[in-house]
Every structure is written in structure tokens, then in C-alpha cells.
Amino acid sequence: MDDKGWRFPTEEELKSLHSKDDVSLGTPDHLYGFSRIRELYFKADPDYSGRFTVPVLWDKKEQTIVNNESSEIIRMLNTEFNSILPSEYAELDLVPKDLEKQIDEINGWVYDNINNGVYKTGFASKQEVYDKECKNVFKHLDKVEELLKQNHEKDKKNEFLLGNTLTEADIRLFTTIIRFDPVYVQHFKCNIGMIRSHYPYLHNWLRLLYWHIPGFQETTDFGHIKKHYTKSHTKINPYGITPLGPVPNILPLDA
């Protein structure tokens, strides 16, 4: 992403990669060969005048945008495509009815204070705002840590935010926690502590998802994550330097 918004990699950039499986520069637009996400918005509506945000859920048949709000897209993906999925995937329910209220409650404070909290910290332009937002992020990381600790003390099989059941709440938190040590500590100055050294229960939860639950590791590319942040935010990182550490980006489960 640059000052013109989210872009797709060019053919020349892709040729520079060592492997066709390397997605550190992102993936190209396989449908239309567009160079910018804004082109999709204009294809859906030539008179569009809003923001060009990601993610985008695109309907290939109708050639239009179905939704561009991440919280709504992830909820839709839980059920809306079950009729065309293999049974083992269709039967997976990340928002079971008996836990939906608790999931929504956790999602609410996690989004406001952690998912979005790192951005409010990183883009703060006044010291007092930064101080307030940074402390708030860690206050709520403490809250997650305590929740996981209490779950574990009740039953060692309780490895997730809501006991022994993986839910949408875990997935929505994962996207921030997997980026925390490699990016947010240095890039957004969320540096009161690190997940790996200050939050043992949260650290175990993160590594369990990444190393043992299918889908998490396969959809995480640390090179892409780090380059996106360090090359996109020129006010924060004007020279576009991408730090080498931490090494490794995530520790093994038995570390």
C-alpha cells in the first residue's frame, strides 16, 4: 500500500521473487489484472466517491462488491457458503449459537482496544495521546492474559478464549497478536512489553493456533506483513527500512 491506496504487485516485481509460492509482495489480481484496489471499486460503481478500503468480498458472477467490512465478511464466511463447501468445512461453526453473545462481547472490546488500539497508538501525533493509547493496549492484553489463565486453571483443555472451543473471537484476535512482536512493538511503538516475554498464556495460545491449528500458519506470511507496514507508512518510517528482527518471528511451541 502507498499514498494511492492498496495496490497489487506488478509482473516485474513478481519476476524478482525466488519462488512462485513467495507471496511476500502480495498476490496479483487474477481476475482483471488491475494494479489498484480502487479499480475494483470503480468497476462496481463508476461514480463511487468513498474510500478504497480492504478487505473486499467480490462477486465474480455479478462483478460487484458484496461487502467491504471485515467483521461482516468474517461472519458471512462462517455460514453463507456452506451449501457449496465439502461437509467437513460446512459443519465447522465458529459462531455457535450458545456462544454468540460472548463472542460478540469479546470482539467488541478486543477490536476497540487491541485490533484498533495498536493503530491509535501508532498514528498518535501527540505524546499524551500516544501514552494513553499505548497503555490502553497493554491494559487489554492483560485482560486477555487473565481470561486465558482463568480458562486454563478451570481445565487444562481450555486452550481458547471461550474454553475448549475455537471461535471467531480467537481468529479476530489472532490477526493482531501474530503481528505484535514482529511489527507493532517497533513500528507502532507498542513497546511496553512483548507477547513472547510478558504474556505466557497469550503466547502459548498464539503458538498453538499457528503451529497446530490448520489454516493459521498457511495464511500468515511474515515477509508480507513486515514489508506492508514498513513500506506503506512513510510518516512513521520515511526511509522504508524493514527491521530484521525479531528472530524468529514466532517461537516454536516447545520453546
What does this structure look like?
- This protein is mainly α and 255 residues long.
- It has helices at 11-15, 37-44, 70-79, 87-90, 100-115, 117-122, 127-154, 168-187, 195-198, 200-212, 222-232; strands at 57-59, 64-67.
- It folds into 2 domains: 1-68, Glutaredoxin, CATH 3.40.30.10; 97-232, Up-down Bundle (Glutathione S-transferase Yfyf (Class Pi), Chain A, domain 2).
- The model has no long low-confidence stretch (mean pLDDT 94).
> What string gives the helices and strands in order?
HHEEHHHHHHHHH
Sheet/helix structural class: mainly alpha
Classify the helix fraction into a percent range. Answer: 40-55%
Number of domains as seen in the coordinates? 2
The pLDDT mean sits at 94
Q: Rg to the nearest angstrom?
A: 19 Å
Query: DSSP helix count?
Result: 11
Strand order within the widest beta sheet: 1-2
The count of β-strands is 2
The profile of the biggest β sheet is: 2 strands, antiparallel
CATH topology of the largest domain: Glutathione S-transferase Yfyf (Class Pi), Chain A, domain 2
* Overall geometric form: globular
How far the N terminus sits from the C terminus, by CA atoms, comes to 34 Å
CATH class of the largest domain: Mainly Alpha
Known CATH architecture of the largest domain: Up-down Bundle
Q: Beta-strand percentage?
A: under 5%
The low-confidence runs, each spanning 5 or more residues with pLDDT under 50, are none
